[in-house]
Structure formats: structure tokens, C-alpha cells
Amino acid sequence: MLKTVSLIGAPTDIGAGARGASMGPEALRVANIGPILESHGLTVLDRGNLSGPANPWQPPVEGYRHLPEVVTWNRLVHEAVYAELSQGHLPILLGGDHCLGLGSISAVARHCRDVGKKLRVLWLDAHADFNTSALTPSGNVHGMPVACLCGHGPQELIEIGGKVPAISPKWVRQIGIRSVDPGEKRFVHEQGLEVFDMRYIDEMGMRQAMELALATLDANTHLHVSFDVDFLDPDIAPGVGTTVPGGPTYREAQLCMEMIADTGRMASLDVVELNPALDVRNKTAMVAVDLIESLFGKSTLMRR
What we know:
Elements: E1 4-10, H1 24-30, H2 33-38, E2 43-49, H3 67-86, E3 90-95, H4 101-115, E4 118-124, H5 145-149, H6 155-158, E5 172-177, H7 182-191, E6 194-197, H8 198-204, H9 206-213, E7 221-228, H10 250-263, E8 266-272, H11 283-295
Helix pairs in contact: 1-11, 3-4, 8-9, 9-10, 10-11
Cofactor: Mn(2+)
InterPro entries: Arginase, Ureohydrolase, Ureohydrolase_dom_sf, Ureohydrolase_Mn_BS
EC number: 3.5.3.1
């Protein structure tokens, strides 16, 4: 695993349906994400926060809310993440809402094309985020990033990164999904997205889900983890704008993170949708940082 990590704050809730995710980066810093990662022998470069347009909080226009601002924020994220990857660093995007995964993952895909690597994306989330303007009445772009990355969305968004589509659905593994809109369900099925939903995890266990999600990774694979904090059950992570009951428990989430760490392949990370305005004494940020620590090798005992 890369030894230098770069923290990139993206303080915006431009794609969300609730205000507050713009405060997420600072809450993660308050929860000591930097010092905790340094305690694992990593060099941590905190690049501060990106500066983008304010949230105008307007209704949708032609199926999208705040599209010009969403495009600007994602271009800023794309360039920042791409710059860190080009320097051999492991970028950690501190969101912000999950629309920013579009900028982040398109940068990772561009980097993989540059260096001739395969890409695997783990999407840890309660939602598939595979909506289009035709499928969602809200127009909130945080429900659309995976679809946009796969080429289904407005031209301004799908072309960020220079290649359309930026990724193939075959490169994505979604884990913890438990809230999918009716039209989105059909679209996910048509596109062949690989989804380990909560029913699968209930029946087969987190271990089997993760073994399948991580199968066939090799030394030439860049593993990107996109961690939406609403992946977690709201009992342990109340500080999100779109809580969905019945998510992974603390122990299931820890196993998920530890199995990712065991691969040694994670090379970029998003942490998104943390909403301190809805949290209890920064509890959710602290749980998120604890799980991120496990992604970087924290375990109860030394593992062979």
C-alpha cells in the first residue's frame, strides 16, 4: 500500500437533498483522521479544502438540481485527485456528498489508463446511486454518480475525465445496498451491475460478499473504495442525510474494511455523506475514522 496519503476536503452538499454534508471534511479532521493515519506509519499531507461554488438550493432544472455547480465541483475534485495519483500518493477525498464520487473515480480511471492498470471500484453504500434524470423525481445528483461514470447522464458530467464512459459497470462491486428506486432497479439489472445487497449479506454473510467482491484482484489492479457513511446502520452512524435502517453492523463493517486492507491493493478512497448537522457529538465521524483506520491495517492481532 502507498505510504503517502493526501487528504482533499470537498466541503459541499451541492448534489444532496439535505444541507450539512458540506461540514463533513472538518468533522473528519476533528475526529483526528490525520494523526490516526500517521500513527500507522503513513505520511499524511492535508491539502486543505477545495473552493467551489456555493449551494444555491434551487429546484431541478430539466431533471437536475444545481447541474452547473455539480459540474464545477466534480472538475475541481477530478483535478485534485488526479494530481495526487500522478505524484504516487493515495488520495482520500473528504466529502461532501456522493455526487463527488464522479470526479474522484473519473480521475482514478484516467490515472489507470495512464499507467496501464485495471480498476476495481468498491461502492459501500445504502443506495445504488444508479439513477438518471428520467428515473428520479428529486433531480439530486448524489443519486446518479455511478450511472454518470458508466456513461448515462448529462454530457457535461459524463465527459469529465476525457473518456466516455469513464468506467464499465463490470468494474464495480456494490456492497450494503438496501434502498433502490423502482426504475433504478430495472436499470441496475439491465446494465449488469454486481450488487451485494443486504439480503445477500444476511443470507451469505459479509465474508462471502467481500470474498466475491475482491476476487481476481492482482498486482496490476488499482482498488478504489467509495465509502458512503450511510452504508452503515443508522444505529451506529446517525449523522447522514439519507438514513436507511438495516445496514451493516459495526462488526460487519469492520470485517469489510479489514478484508479490503488484507488485499494491500487499495490505492484511493472517498469518504462521503457525513452530515455533522444530523450527528450526535461527532459520533458518526469517529466511527467513520475508526473504520478508515481498519482500511489502513488496524487489527486486533498481527495478521499473517
